[in-house]
Design brief:
The complex is a heterodimer of chains A (308) and B (520). Chain A is mostly helical and 308 residues long. Helices cover 73% and strands 0% of the residues of chain A. In chain B, a hairpin with a 2-residue loop joins strand 18 and strand 19. Classes of the chains: A mainly alpha (308), B alpha+beta (520).
């Protein structure tokens, strides 16, 4: 398949998942933010934005600005609206490859972005709506696109972004250590009921973090997402079956996963920030490696640009 | 419209009821505990309020927070104005509820054993033995784990003077706690402004408290007890609650047909073979629990459960036979029971109650049927209850006959003007009567009372019947905390490092510029 198309699909996967994760994080934290004194609230809003990988543009940064930055800002790749817009734009470029179901659901989502009130209560509804839309996009991608290379790129982007978003979710824990209980953390990932069923009576921060980090069966856990990414990479590159690897991305993803999976610790909570940093770094390196191997290079593009 | 419009005729309507209003003093001043709520409502217009109320109702329907009404799933109406209980009032309520639970626990242990309470002349033997829920099948053994009233709901109301009184005890299968959990979630999203910075005591720990109490009361010798919730099935009106509690505790929700009793032990059928069950949180009536002991035609229970409990092979929560303690005639003796068993004075008083078996009281009541509330002693959900002032002549006549035919079956109480809370009705707020059901969890060592509980509200103007089956709704119930725990935010925290996204914009670099142009 064309590299350009593969790249678009990869980024559709990433952006849709990013919108989903951001909506989850925003939904849960908003409740908490509301209950804080103004000064504290502005500080936490700023930190939350930092966890999501952005800096405030001006010194004035409060709840309203946070909502804009994470939900409604169409110009930013960190916000929900920006992510969904970019996903749609990518789908438009790969229009002939994606199924019409997938394209339409992304397009409908894009046009629905403006139909929400931008206050706190409206944002709750918005987050809820985004979760529904992204689930629909994911579902259509899984059921109406052949699971060939094109789907693999989509799934690859999705699982890498998912590992990244879960790592960010867990990083938000220390942003709001006062109110961000492990219950909210699990709700954030939609993992509350699953967690309860596996844990019987063992509750607490440590167990919840362990679940989101290491559970081998919960699809939004970091280990699960990284394994998914690894499997996609393996299928995309079937030549290296017996010994070694020839693909940097596989090395990075595989090492990150096994490091987590076989890491022994007595105090997961104190090591958590370090782990999260490692995961996020691995994801961005893997993403770069994938770009280098499969997609067009930026400098090549620039050269083409000169000719035309 | 502003708040003053929404509350335009409120003080007049509140004056008409003659009841204690939870939010306003008689001069239409918001009480201190309601300051934040009043402030939030002042900012909202009618459109805002109705939009939010609609969206809350929609969320309930989506989440399946429903009750079964005449075979139809209906969302449980949640009103947008919360009921707020100040910290000092709650301290008293909490103490009173726990006290009552301890007394009823002691009473149950006694009546299914030596009946010293009868021998000492505190309560007549006949009264106990004629209770429809006194089950001889469970006489003479202490249940495994030693607790009978694991979960209870003690209904309290506030009278016109503003004093809390206990209206009834529920120690069989008290329901409604699921609405407490759901109401809080819905309110946090529906009226976030009202929470403000006040400390409202959380309710989310209830399922964990419940699970830990159930596990703690497992038969002795079981290291890692398996707990299940036993439901009559999907047609039960409280089925939503059964699924929610099982889900939040992370345990199996079983029906009778999933269980087998063998050798006085209970097992459930699973794909991995039979698995031992140690604790059953029973959400079905005793009558249907065990066809070997109770109704032989019951398909809902499991034969052998009572014997297994007797042999100590399984803990059933709440214990079988608890109904004798929430019989409404026994209710009238509870203050005496508290003095007898605990040697304490009751913290919360009863509502004055006439025992119709006593000749004098009966004659007094029969003369004044049109001024009193008459209730069947074993009823629940407001079934069979007659409010004198609202009843027609024929109804009162029919009631008179039934009371004379079966005086043991009825009690009478004065009509209480339950306290009111502003409630959205049409395009404004009106005073509506409320009660309160705090829930208590007893693990054998300690009685824990969930902060708040379920506030039920009669949605019809002037109505005193709050039951959901008769047009009642509910309100989120906030208990304010006056002793803030040390906020963790005060502790030094490592600063957050901003790790900017390395993600490239994967479409041509001029896309963003073009998009801006298009928007302009």
């Amino acid at each position: 398949m064309l590299s350009r198309i593969a790249e678009s699909l990869f980024w559709i996967g990433r952006y849709v998942e990013r919108a989903d994760g951001t909506a989850r994080i925003l939904d849960v934290h908003l409740e908490r933010l509301n209950h804080l004194p103004t000064e504290e609230r502005d500080k936490v809003a700023r930190e939350l934005l930092a966890v999501m990988g952005a800096r405030p543009e001006s010194d004035e940064f409060g709840l309203e600005e946070l909502l804009h930055a994470l939900a409604y800002d169409k110009q930013s790749a960190t916000s929900i609206a920006g992510s969904l817009g970019a996903a749609r734009e990518n789908a438009r470029r790969a229009r002939e490859t994606v199924s019409s179901g997938l394209w339409e659901s992304l397009n409908t989502t894009y046009y629905g972005l403006n139909q929400h009130r931008k206050d706190v209560v409206g944002t709750y509804r918005f987050c809820h709506w985004v979760l529904e839309r992204t689930a629909m996009v994911s579902g259509l991608a899984d059921t109406t696109v052949s699971h060939d290379d094109s789907w693999l790129f989509l799934a690859l982007g999705r699982s890498l972004e998912r590992a990244d978003m879960t790592a960010r979710m867990l990083s938000t824990r220390d942003v709001l250590s006062a109110g961000m209980s492990w219950v909210n953390m699990l709700r954030c990932a939609g993992a509350y009921e699953s967690f309860l069923r596996t844990r019987r009576a063992a509750f607490g921060d440590q167990h919840a973090a362990e679940f989101l980090l290491l559970d081998r069966l919960f699809p939004r856990s970091i280990v699960y997402a990284l394994r998914d990414a690894d499997e996609c990479l393996a299928k995309l590159d079937p030549s290296a079956q017996r010994v070694g690897f020839i693909n940097d991305a596989r090395r990075i993803v595989g090492q990150a996963r096994t490091f987590l999976e076989f890491h022994r610790t007595d105090d997961l909570m104190s090591e958590l920030p370090e782990h999260m940093e490692r995961v996020q770094k691995a994801v961005s390196q893997a993403s770069d490696a994938i770009s280098r191997k499969y997609f067009n290079q930026a400098d090549e593009l620039a050269w083409v640009g000169e000719v035309s | 419209m502003t708040m003053s419009d929404l509350f335009q005729d409120y003080s007049e309507a509140a004056g008409r009821t003659g009841a204690y209003d939870e939010m306003f003093t008689s001069g239409q001043q918001a009480r201190k505990s309601y300051g934040q709520v009043a402030g939030a409502l002042r900012e909202l217009s009618l459109t805002d309020v109705t939009a939010r109320a609609d969206s809350m109702a929609r969320t309930f329907l989506d989440r399946g927070v429903t009750f079964d009404f005449a075979g139809e799933e209906r969302p449980f109406p949640l009103d947008i104005v919360p009921r707020v209980i100040p910290a000092d009032e709650w301290t008293v309520l909490e103490k009173g509820v726990a006290q009552r639970v301890r007394a009823l626990e002691a009473f149950l242990n006694d009546v299914y054993d030596k009946m010293t309470v009868v021998a000492d002349g505190v309560i007549p033997r006949q009264l106990v033995t004629t209770s429809a829920h006194f089950h001889r099948q469970v006489h003479g053994f202490e249940p495994a784990g030693g607790v009978r009233v694991h979960i209870s709901g003690i209904d309290v109301v506030r009278d016109a003077a503003g004093t809390f009184r206990v209206l009834e005890d529920n120690v069989r299968v008290p329901s409604g706690v699921s609405y407490v959990l759901e109401n809080r979630r819905a309110m946090a999203k529906g009226l976030p402004e009202a929470f403000g910075q006040q400390l409202i005591r959380p309710v989310e720990e209830y399922p964990r408290r419940l699970l830990s109490a159930l596990r703690k009361t497992a038969p002795s010798g079981v290291d890692d007890p398996t707990v299940v919730v036993l439901t009559p099935g999907v047609f039960n009106s409280a089925y939503f609650e059964h699924t929610l509690l099982a889900g939040l505790m992370g345990v199996e929700l079983v029906e009778g047909r999933d269980l087998i009793c063998r050798g006085n032990r209970v097992y459930m059928r699973t794909t991995a073979g039979e698995q031992r069950v140690d604790v059953i949180y029973k959400r079905i009536d005793d009558d249907f629990l065990d066809p070997l002991q109770f109704r032989a035609d019951s398909m809902l229970g499991c034969p052998g459960l009572v014997n297994a409990a007797r042999a100590g092979g399984v803990t059933i929560a709440n214990a079988v036979g608890n109904g004798v303690a929430d019989d409404k005639l026994v209710y009238s003796y509870v203050p005496d029971l508290i003095r007898y068993y605990l040697n304490e004075e009751p913290v919360i008083a009863n509502v004055d109650t006439f025992r119709l078996e006593e000749k004098e009281a009966r004659e007094h009541v029969l003369d004044r049927l049109d001024e009193l509330v008459v209730k069947p002693v074993d009823g629940s959900g407001g079934k069979g209850l007659v409010i004198g002032p609202d009843a027609s002549k024929d109804e009162l006549e029919a009631l008179r006959k039934r009371v004379i035919a079966d005086p043991r079956g009825w009690i009478a109480q004065p009509v209480l003007q339950l306290s009111t809370v502003p409630t959205l009705s049409g395009d404004k707020f009106g005073p509506r009567h409320v009660d309160l059901r705090p829930f208590a969890v007893n693990d054998g060592d300690d009685v824990w009372v969930l902060p708040g509980g379920l506030t039920r509200v009669a949605l019809k103007e002037g109505s005193l019947i709050v039951n959901s089956s008769q047009g009642g709704g509910s309100k989120d119930t906030w208990v304010l905390s006056d002793s803030p725990e040390v906020p963790v935010e005060a502790l030094p925290r490592p600063s957050i490092t901003v790790r900017e996204r390395v993600s490239v914009w994967p479409v041509e670099s001029n896309w963003r510029d073009r998009q801006t142009e298009q928007q302009q």
